[in-house]
Specification:
Methylamine Dehydrogenase, Chain H, 28 strands, single chain, mainly beta, 4-stranded antiparallel sheet, about 325 residues, globular
């Protein structure tokens, strides 16, 4: 199985980097805050830290006893938290990849784990239908939320660090205040399960991706749906705003026609603009669910999946299309 990490710089004439190392499907990726490292987690139970350049050098360590579903850097880039199907959350130093401690109260797969912006808390979600908030210094669970009607697919901290948002297989999007433990907002805006979310840098907007093929943009200040975006044909599996908030990207998989598609948009206070799409035709149908993550860091796009041959073969076409769209313009 060709299980790789591919990085694209969206400026014209720039080649893709193809990193080979994982022995099974790549489940998650994240750039460090500085952009100098890229972490990836895999079904091969390992985590790799890549230097995002042509050499593609990486450090690898056996992180868990089952698939690694989530990797996330602390805001200072010194620590990494990982989550796994082995029901554990682990915290590591980025330098020398030293294991620090494990959080073990979940009783089913852990789908996601994130540091708070100030690094004092860790939030996690699991197929045991709980969201847990952990004190980083004491390593204790300080609060938990139970969601009886569905599994939490993904969650993240608000940029202020005082709230968390979570999306679920029960079609809901929820925002909690972690100081009072109160549910602040609840939305049922999708027709099927919700797979991913991302906060805008301002903290005023939240975007979600759902198996109903749509993206939804919420205005959190007014508590209302702002936009519904219908660009995908298959389930929308992931979405992310860029750090600046100027762009967002989403990914989807259509198993019926073996197509994987990524859409890139520009976002502003007056609306959004579709820039271009990357559509990949797989050589055969996927027999299992592949978690695909699209992340924009300024103008860098990373795509994670276990079928990347088509990306490299079609790179010339993509760059040509980009040049036609933007006329060689560089930000």
């Amino acid at each position: 199985m060709d299980s790789c990490v591919v990085i694209w710089n969206l400026k014209p004439q720039t080649k893709a980097y193809r990193f080979v190392g994982h022995q099974d499907a790549v489940m998650c990726v994240q750039f460090s805050p500085s952009g100098n490292l890229l972490a990836s987690g895999s079904r091969d139970q390992t985590v790799r830290l890549w230097i995002p350049n042509m050499k593609g050098e990486s450090a690898v360590f056996k992180a868990h006893k089952a698939s690694v579903r989530s990797v996330h850097f602390s805001s200072d880039g010194q620590l990494l938290v990982t989550a796994s199907d082995d029901k554990t959350i682990k915290v590591w130093t980025v330098h020398k990849q030293k294991f620090l401690f494990s959080l073990n109260l979940h009783v089913n797969w852990v789908r996601c784990a994130k540091f708070s912006p100030d690094g004092k808390l860790i939030v996690s979600s699991s197929d045991d239908k709980t969201v847990r908030i952990w004190d980083h210094s004491t390593r204790e669970c300080v609060h938990s939320f139970y969601e009886p009607t569905g599994f939490i697919s993904y969650l993240d901290f608000h940029p202020s660090g005082v709230c968390i948002a979570a999306v679920s297989t029960d079609k809901t999007v929820k925002v909690w205040d972690i100081r009072t433990h109160q549910l602040l907002q609840s939305y049922q805006i999708h027709n099927t399960g919700v797979n991913s979310l991302s906060f805008h840098a301002s903290g005023n907007y939240l975007i979600t991706a759902s198996s109903d093929s749509t993206l939804k943009v919420l205005n959190l200040l007014e508590g209302k749906l702002l936009y519904t975006i219908h660009g995908h044909q298959g389930p929308a599996t992931c979405v992310a705003f860029s750090r600046s908030g100027e762009f967002f990207a989403s990914g989807s998989t259509d198993k019926q026609v073996s197509t994987e598609e990524y859409l890139i948009y520009r976002y502003s206070s007056i609306g959004y603009e579709h820039l271009f799409s990357l559509k990949l035709i797989s050589s055969s149908c996927l027999s299992h669910f592949i978690l695909q993550t699209v992340t924009i860091l300024d103008q860098r796009l990373s795509i994670t999946e276990d079928r990347v041959k088509e990306v490299l073969e079609n790179q010339r076409v993509i760059i040509h299309t980009y040049n036609q769209l933007f006329g060689g313009h560089r930000n």
